[in-house]
Amino acid sequence: MRRFPVSRAVWVTGVVVFLAGLLIFGVALNRDTSPKISDDAAVRAALASSDTGKWLRTHPYDRTDVIPLDRENARVSFFKGPRVVVEVAVAPSGKVIAVQFFPSGYVRAGNATVQHGLALLAGALLFLLLLAQRPLASQRNIDLAALAALTLTIWTVNERLFGWTMLLGVALMTYLLVRCLGVAARAEAPVAARFLVRFGESETQLLRLIAGAVALLAVFVTIPGGSVGDVSQASMSGATEILAGTMPYGHIMDGVVHGDTYPLFAYVLYTPAALIWPVHDLFDNLDGGLWIAAIALLAGAAAIFRAGRSAVDEAFGLRHAAAWLLFPPVLITASSGSNDLPTAALVAWALATFVHAGRTSTWLSAAAWAKVAPVFVLPLWLARFRGAQLKRALIAPVVLTLAMLALLLALGGTEGVRKMIDAIAFQSDRGAQLSFWVVTGAPALQIVVQAFGFGLAAAGAVAVWRSTALASSLVRVSALSAAVLLVFEIGASYWSYAYLPWVYPVLVVALLWPGDATRLRRSDGSPESGSDSGA
Fold it and tell me: Cα dihedral angle (384, 389, 392, 397), rounded to 10 degrees?
């Protein structure tokens, strides 16, 4: 194992961008983003709602918490002990604009059957059995256990224990973040994967059957068994608007609050389903989103299989494809139709085409236009290439950006871009109980974490640019990418286990794959060697 020095250029870049981020976020923190209604007035308005009052008569509460929903409206949460009972969105006028009830047996989104406590436990155990390695007491198994333990956040959310969810989720993600930074900083000699559960001489054939059976189960859980969530509803509504010649921003159907907060490509992804099942209101057929998520689920499995087969062998790829399909946060997110699954599939294909400059940048650029976070990984991904490869890698981000801007202009005129940016900006201002910073009441610390994310992304790009050995290592680039994504998940104003799928592909490669398994190759097919002396 070799640890490489970090050059002055990397440190300076990281520190300068970090300090700039602190300044920018510090100014933003001082903005008045409080709702235009007082806390007391918001609580009175929520209690005056007949629906809320009726609910609270049979579901008592012992405390309330009022936070901004956005720059205009307030979110009033009623709690019984640590459990949330009901949440009410209140406009400045005192009008109740949305109510979310939390009954016992509540499931946030997706197939309810696989979210039963025993089903979650079974899924996590099968995931562990597929990927656990020998010896049992190893660092990789500790990392695997931490990843599997994130399944608990599904249970705590459904138990309405939002505070516990955030404390547990951030603790586990912080551990994984530190581990990824450690992997990115050093090169390990390739070590063969020695799996705890083996299938003898017919292992590949048996793994094919297992992966096929799990894929069928995953599709069944997602489509006929799924339960469409609000993100899927918004995605289908936005796609329907695009097909009608209207941009989604400001035009998402009634019943979905702030459903227009994603980059344009997130809605474009759902247009094939909207052609068949257009969605104008909540009474329309909403299953189109489940079909898109199911396709993305299988596409992600195919990408992970391809990457694993290229890095090690077919059996290795099959194990990881089956594990992806079994990982509860992935499976349950798919069964809600969320756009997090298409984003995750795009990240997985960027990983699978790691050695191809044009293809890998195309997939990652598409992911960045579906969810904002992958855009912070794109610079360090592009920094791996030189010369003609770099030119090919830059084509996709430029072409896709121009295409999305052209579509925005066609749908919304010159105001289209501004409206998209304003809508996406809600993500930085939103208030939610599923936020570590609401739970801890530490907004100043949040801006430090967010600024650190920008600094890490910038320093990582410089480190990759200066080090050929780092740039050519699939494991170390994945570790750096996972670290960047995890920082932004931790620093977000809202977090959900549905975000885990789009960090999953790079995270498992970083922590569970054998050493520096894949390297870039020169045009003549020979391995590219390099030195970390400039890192």
Answer: 10
Q: Do the Cβ atoms of 98 and 257 come closer than 8 Å?
A: yes
Which residues are within 8 A (CB) of 171 and not within 5 positions of it... i.e. 6 or more apart?
none
Work out the angle between the directed axes of helices 504-512 and 139-149 (0-180°, nearest 10). 160
Closest Cα partner for 184 from 450, 451, 483, 466?
483
Pair 269, 344: CB distance under 8 Å: no
In degrees, rounded to 5, the angle at the alpha carbon of residue 517 between the alpha carbons of residues 502 and 465 is 70
CATH class (in words) of the domain with range 32-101: alpha beta
**Angle (deg, nearest 10), helices 357-370 and 387-412:** 30
**For position 5, what pLDDT does the model report?**
54
Q: Is the pLDDT of residue 241 over 60?
A: yes
Whole-number Cα distances in Å, 168 to 144, 157, 427, 443:
16, 11, 22, 19
Q: Side chain identity at 402, as an amino acid letter?
A: L
Residue burial 98-136, b: 16+ Cβ < 10 Å; e: rest: bbeebeeebbbbbbbebbeeebbeebbebbbebbbbeee
CA distance 311 to 124: 25
Domain coordinates in residue numbering, the chain: 32-101, 113-226+287-512
pLDDT computed for residue 519 by the predictor? 46
Residues 325-336 pLDDT 10s: 999 999 999 999
Nearest to 482 by CA among 465, 499, 462: 499
* Residues, the chain: 535
Non-local CB neighbours of 66 within 8 Å, separated by 6+ positions: 39, 42, 43, 74, 75, 76, 77
Q: pLDDT value at position 534?
A: 38
**Model pLDDT, residue 523:** 35
Per-residue pLDDT for 310 more than 60?
yes
Confidence band, pLDDT 50/70/90 cuts, at residue 32: low
